[in-house]
Amino acid sequence: MLTAAIALAAFLAQEVDPDVAGQTPGEVVAAAPAEAWRAIAPDHLLLVTLADDSEVAIELNSTFAPVHVANIQAMARAGYWTGGGASVYRVQDNYVVQWGHRDDQPELPAGVEETPPAEYVRSIEGLAVNGFGMRDSYAAAVGFSDGWPVALYSDGTASLTHCYGAVGVGRNMSPDTGTGEELYAVIGHAPRHLDRNIAIVGRVVDGMAHYTSLTRGTEVLGMYPEGEVAAPIKSVILADMLAPEDRPNYEVLRSDSEAFARYVAVRANRDDAFYDVPAGGVDVCNVQVPVRAAE
Amino acid sequence: MLTAAIALAAFLAQEVDPDVAGQTPGEVVAAAPAEAWRAIAPDHLLLVTLADDSEVAIELNSTFAPVHVANIQAMARAGYWTGGGASVYRVQDNYVVQWGHRDDQPELPAGVEETPPAEYVRSIEGLAVNGFGMRDSYAAAVGFSDGWPVALYSDGTASLTHCYGAVGVGRNMSPDTGTGEELYAVIGHAPRHLDRNIAIVGRVVDGMAHYTSLTRGTEVLGMYPEGEVAAPIKSVILADMLAPEDRPNYEVLRSDSEAFARYVAVRANRDDAFYDVPAGGVDVCNVQVPVRAAE
Q1: Is the pLDDT of residue B236 over 90?
Q2: Hey, are the CB atoms on A196 and B276 less than 8 Å from each other?
Q3: Which of A73, A188, B247, B256 has CA atoms 20 to 30 A from the CA of A5?
Q4: Mean pLDDT, to the nearest integer, of A123-142?
Q5: Which of A11, A135, A193 would you mutate first to test chain B, the one with the most B CBs within 10 A?
Q6: Letter string b/e over residues A47-68, b meaning 16 or more CB atoms within 10 A of that residue's CB
Q7: A288 vs B94: CB contact, 8 Å cut-off?
Q8: pLDDT reading at A3 higher than 70
């Protein structure tokens, strides 16, 4: 269902919702009831451990790029990136970090589709989207679906968006679509021009600073010189490969919850004590979807 | 003059300008003629040198916050942040780095205004703005003025925008406006909700990665624990305090040049070999204004 709010694409009013007046986004999130949160499924939680044991947690999304995500799951289960050889080898300021096997890529494990379709968009049909009247520079409308920022286009397609922390599949020139063996995460202002041109498979939900604080690469596109890496990768696994008691657990604020609507309203109209003038609007990538560690 | 293009606020057409078809932003910038560039004045080029001798160069802008900028110039000339005691002490992921004297702030040098006005907006009058029909979530219109991204509001005011690299003045709660002794730079997705709420005084034009790759602070708001710093500051000077032959020189692509218009067009409609679908639009903070080292 495409909500009326999104169809209107109205500019958010500059009046502050009395329900949230004076509250910070953090206060609104802290007040969200238990039922406003959804758990991240352990087979969709990718855990990247760097050589220094720092960990980056990524939620995978099978709704937009199911073949690419299945590939990534198969590679993680086969230990494709575990035990040496994989690294973060590209760190381009205000753009992306990229990891995988830069050279000497091992043979792909069984079950990996070597030429996935171009899963850059999907049909709007069947997608439940909550819109909040946000303006957008790149799409006919934007909103949130199941806790993910999405863009909707006039041709009836939808895509995930390249917001901060978005994880996509590195590829060569079309018709190559990438297998998922090389992934990147956005570490700067949203490069939304990549939307519809590359498969987005997930987003970083924890440990982002382990990527963003890496020393930038000195070669073109932020690549490290041959033979050097930003960070060796120790392992990449899915959370369900760990015993239940050893798994990290995360929850995402449901974007169809009342709490999320309040959160968007305060993001768009900051009027807590620090602010003189509420913005009266917010862009989709400045509404960071709340994620928390669960018990 | 407010251009007709901005008044229209039309969505950028999804047709690629035949003049730039197939070109990358870098190619358009490389082809810009000498007269499309303006030099950064050495009295408006602030050079922050960290303890490891890495240097961050910041262009100051006196058009929006003249009292705050004059304060910063006076503090730099007096060596306020030079010779120990100043540091980068806050690094908040996807938000800002902040520097200055966290505690034990020395007495302000002569000539520094201790309570500057709230220079968060100025009148549109007298401001030459080139607009390119960009949509915006925060303002009635956006464009570029003298190489700076600006936002225009329906009440006749204008502000600089909190794009990646923007430098603003840390402050306490209103009516405090900050003196300029504590500054921050944006290191994540543009926090445009800060526009009109804080004085923007410039932007990082070189060395941004020295800030963005700093280890994130572990305390609330990305603060470092008491007694710890992300990076000690060795000196902060204006370029004109150096002998002419020792000064770094930078040039900014003039936003009223034909080359800049072409640059915006290719940022909005990437159709070089990597892209399948030109976006047909771009947001103001995804048009990074080109800056180059000059001879």
Answers
A1: yes
A2: yes
A3: A188
A4: 95
A5: A193
A6: bbbbeeeeebbbbbbbebbebb
A7: yes
A8: no
